[in-house]
Each structure stands twice: as structure tokens, then as C-alpha cells.
Amino acid sequence: MKSLERTMAAVTGGPYDRRSVGLTLSLYGARLTGCPLYDFYTDADRYVQGQIAVKNTFDTDIFYTPFVLTAITEAFGGEVKYFKTSPPNMSKPAFKSGAGLSKFDISNIERHPRLVYLLEATRRLADALAADNAVAAVFLSPIDLPPLIMGIDAWLETILFNETEAKKIMEMTGDFFVNMANLFFASGAHFVALPVVFCNPAIITRRIVDEMALPVLSANFSKLKGPLVLHHGGAPMTSFISSLASLPNVIGYAIDQTDKFSDVRNLAGEGKTLLGNIDGPTLNKKTPELIRAQCANILKDRAGDPHFIFSSSGADIPLDTPPENIAAVVEAVKNFAGGEDHAGKR
User: Fold this and answer.
1) By C-alpha distance, which of 29, 18, 35, 19 is closest to 56?
2) Distance between CA 22 and CA 176 in Å, rounded?
3) Fewest CB atoms less than 10 Å from the CB: which of 191, 266, 281, 346?
4) Which residues constitute the domain of residue 234?
């Protein structure tokens, strides 16, 4: 069974030979190829070489486009700091307030070199792997783009105290999001993965979630030419996942390591694919034995659930993670047989 068929079986509920494995190893490709991170995050060829090395080394099923969302910051005029062992971070936002961002001309922004890099990496990754493997593009939703462009504090101030300006900004970022997401699909991505942070009522008010955030997501998701997976964004999804259930073109949720699958399944419904939930960013601090035990527990918990993909939760698996730790995850999934029903839906 091809990796792509195995992954799609988790979406459709069809039969599978084993669980699909999707580990966030976008960064780790730089280690396997000895590529400096500045080159890795600016040269699409170097990035794809890293993902091919991941495929050849670990034989996972899902591959991700560059997890370098700060490329968006740079495209809007912000400044970014690059590091030797981790992805870049924003060092200076493009705008200090919503007033500047709302007037920004996005008509040709997809031609900016940083966004061209993301799209070119997607195309080349799809050319190399998409016939046999799922390719997932990583981006941000219309409500999560503004904090990467103007900073979290400025966006919070805008969305809480100037709703008129916030709506203008989200109209603009909505157009940008739809354009980029559909370009990812046209470049060969099978789905787009989106962290959803600013529809979490622990961060903004429930009223803003209900009256602003969710309508913006619904309107823009309906314009897409492919499916989405919503990512927990660093916070448990259990408290707000039910509010996401009716959003169009969403096929699944990548849950936090602290979420319980049974709780999320009850809230999300039977048809959505759940991805997770061993913690990727701390995989470097564990032993292979502990990793195999954690994987077995997750697999036992999801035995009989046809809509499940074994994935790492959180951001990239760190560069200093021993390769045997990553191999332990893949081996645990491949070797697991206890209590599994591979027949799919009946």
C-alpha cells in the first residue's frame, strides 16, 4: 500500500495496512543533509533535498512544506532573525498598528521572493514525493496572519478595541490567505495545515470568536480548492474544537499533546481525521524505550478509530534529536498490531 493511499484511508475511513505516520521533520532535513539553516530556508532545492533525506532515512508518510511562517513577515516588510539550530523568528514587525497594515497593497504579494520560495518548495516537493506520499503545505489562517505581520500585542489591541480596523485587516488577510492556499494546492499540496490560535476563547473573548473570527474563517475556507487540517497552535483544542466543527473544507485536526483523543473525538464527531499526539519538540529529551511505550499507548487508545493519523504534536522536532528516537516512533507504528482493525468503516 502506498503512503498516500494509507494517509487517504484515514480521511475516508477506508481499509489500511497500518497507520499513516506524519512527523514534523521539516527542520530535521537540514541535519540529514548538513545544510546551514539560512540556505535551507531560502533555497527551495536545498529544502526539498532535506525532505527526500527524511523519506530515505525514516520512511514516514506525510511531508511538510517549509515550517517557516516568518517568510510572511518578510513579505510584508518585517524583519527576521535567523538561527543556527532553529527556525527564524520575527525581530521587527512590518507595522506597529492596524492602520498601516489595512492600507498595504497585496495585489502582487505572492511574487515576493519569500513567498515564491514557499510555493517553489511546495512544487518541487510535490514533484519529488507526491505520487507516493501526502504533501502538506503549512500556512496561517486569515485571523492568525495579522500577529505575524504586526505583532501579537498590536493585533490584540486592534481586535479588542478597534473592531472596524480589525475587520478591514481580516478582509485583506482573507484575500491573501485564499490566494496563497489555492496556489499551494495548484503547486501539488494535498492539504494545507493551519494553526488556529486567534479563535481560542482563552486568548480572545468568546464574543469576538463567535462574531468575528469564525465568520471570517467560514467565508474564506469556503473559497478553497482543497482540504484543510487545523492545528492546535500550541494550546489544547478540547476547549474550542466544537466551535470549529462546521467550518467548510476542514477534514481534520492536529491536536495538542495534552488533549485526550476520546474527548476530541466526542466533540469533533466521527468523520473528522485526528492527528497526533506525541510531543515533537521534546522528542530529543526521551529515550527510545519511553518513546515506544508512549506510541503504543496512543495506538491502543485509537485502535478501531478509522480516522486517525499518528503524528507529532507541536512545532518541528529539534535538530539535536537522536535519529534513533525518530526511528523508534516509526518502528512502533509499523510494528503495532494489538487490537487493530484494518478493515476501515463497515
Assistant:
1) 29
2) 27
3) 346
4) 32-273
